[in-house]
Amino acid sequence: MTLAYRGVDQIAEARFVAIRENRAAEVGRLAPLVRIIAKRRGRMVGGVVGVTFGLLAFVTALVSYDASGRWLDGRGSGLGTLFLLSAWPLAAVASGIASMQCRLKTARRALAPLRKTGDALVDLARVEQLDPARTLASFAKGQERLSVALPLAGIAMLAPLTLHFAVALFLSSSSNASTETAADFDGWIRWSVLLVGHAHLVLVYLGFRFARRLGARSSAEIEQKGTARDGFGAIALTTVASLVPGAVVFLVPPTLVFVTGAVFAPIAYAVMGRRVLAERRVIEQLEGPLEGVTSKA
């Protein structure tokens, strides 16, 4: 009886080794899919950092005082501007680190079922059930919505005021006026939050809505129609939202919201749409052919 069990174990062991080599080769061919998973994780983390520092900039500028202890005099401590401008490099670094970590962890997890447990029959059952292409493709598809929504949310929180700072810095350096400082711009952030702060939140919501709708569109539809018009639509709705209380200030805030948003929103939405389209094509290419290989093993 013991010899019979040993014979079964040996057969299972030999079968396990043969299938493991095949599965390991499949995982190696799925490297582009692992990269997509890692990049999507990086975009999500970068978006979270952008939203977080955007909120810190808003709150800090809103509650800060200048050296004389005055609040609504047009200046602040400068911390709000510091949070705003530092958000971009910090989001990029966090995105890169998260992407690298995710890439390593995803590859290890894909290979985990190939490790021996000491039980030849259990090992064989695990490796036979392993379908790397379908598993990784399913995980990547599940990331799509947040990998679109969170970066757009970060951009919605940071891009408008960053553009305003760049313009203010250019105007102050090209004229006889004193150079724009972080403390000066804190006052601008404060008034922006008071008058159109809710417009940032509306744009964040519209980014999430766009991500949900994008997931329902086919790749052919995205390729044919593009997504830039979604960006224009988001800015139009955000401008409408800024009419209150912006309309009571001679329509200046809504006009500024529209002009600023028209600079970055259509581009951001178009780039995100093209990126999702490119990623979907890779997922579809790797998911299909390798399933046939897996089923034959």
Describe what this molecule looks like in 3D:
The protein has helices spanning 2-29, 31-63, 79-111, 120-129, 132-173, 182-216, 219-225, 228-241, 243-246, 252-296. With 297 residues, the chain is mainly alpha-helical. The radius of gyration is 26 Å and the shape is elongated. It has one domain (2-296).
Keywords:
297 residues, disordered C terminus, disordered N terminus, mainly alpha, elongated
Radius of gyration: 26 Å
Element string (H = helix, E = strand): HHHHHHHHHH
Span between termini: 30 Å
Please indicate the percent range of residues in DSSP E strands (runs of 2 or more). under 5%
Number of strands: 0
How would a crystallographer describe the biggest sheet? none
Q: How is the topology of this model organized?
A:
Blueprint: H1 2-29, H2 31-63, H3 79-111, H4 120-129, H5 132-173, H6 182-216, H7 219-225, H8 228-241, H9 243-246, H10 252-296
Helix pairs in contact: 1-4, 1-10, 2-3, 2-5, 2-6, 3-5, 3-6, 5-6, 5-10, 6-8, 6-10, 8-10
At a glance:
This protein has 297 residues and is an all-alpha fold.
